[in-house]
Write a structure and sequence with these properties.
6 helices; Arc Repressor Mutant, subunit A; NAD+ poly-ADP-ribosyltransferase activity; Probable RNA 2'-phosphotransferase; about 180 residues; EC 2.7.1.-
Length: about 180
């Protein structure tokens, strides 16, 4: 399997596991888990052939660790980023003093007035370091990195979670906690 095939399957998995399982009539449980066998079978609806070995490669080698297996490798789910309502069963975790968010200039005025909102996703996504935030922001243009006073937010009662792949999650970030 070459890089282009891996990327194509990864994009397909992101779409059906995070946003639209109905596209292939895939069943997800309340925690976002799908049967690996059902996923492989139903991917064929879109003429996508995936083997268990290919899924193993994609899950283990994806640079952002977007997907995870259950312990038996019989179920798979996206680690975070869902626009569909699922419960990831994440535990509230105390964040570091600062986390970071990558965005672009065209959103700065809205963020200054309204803060960071989860929009169509279940959470606002924050990065542990500026480099990761820069990569995230650069996907949609020239990145602007915002420093989030996450420690202060946590002390003020805002819950934080960390996904299986190390992305920090929260429901919103009021503008008074953002350093522009």
């Amino acid at each position: 399997m070459n890089e282009k095939q891996i990327k194509g399957i990864s994009k397909f998995l992101s779409y059906v596991l995070r946003h639209n399982p109905q596209e292939i009539n895939l069943s997800l449980d309340a925690n976002g888990w799908a049967s690996v066998n059902e996923l492989i079978e139903k991917a064929r609806i879109k003429n996508i052939e995936i083997t268990i070995d290919e899924l193993e490669v994609i899950v283990s080698q994806n640079d952002k660790q977007r997907f995870t297996f259950n312990d038996e490798h019989t179920k798979i789910r996206a680690s975070q980023g869902h626009s569909i309502n699922i419960e990831l069963d994440l535990k509230t975790t105390e964040p570091p003093e600062y986390l970071y968010h990558g965005t672009v200039t065209k959103f700065i005025n809205a963020i200054k007035s309204e803060g960071l909102k989860k929009m169509s996703r279940q959470h606002v996504h924050l990065s542990m370091d500026r480099t990761t935030a820069e990569k995230v922001g650069s996907r949609i243009g020239i990145p602007v990195i915002l420093s989030i006073r996450s420690g202060a937010m946590h002390r003020d009662g805002f819950p934080f979670f960390i996904s299986d792949n190390g992305v920090w999650l929260t429901d919103s970030v009021p503008n008074l906690y953002i350093e522009f």
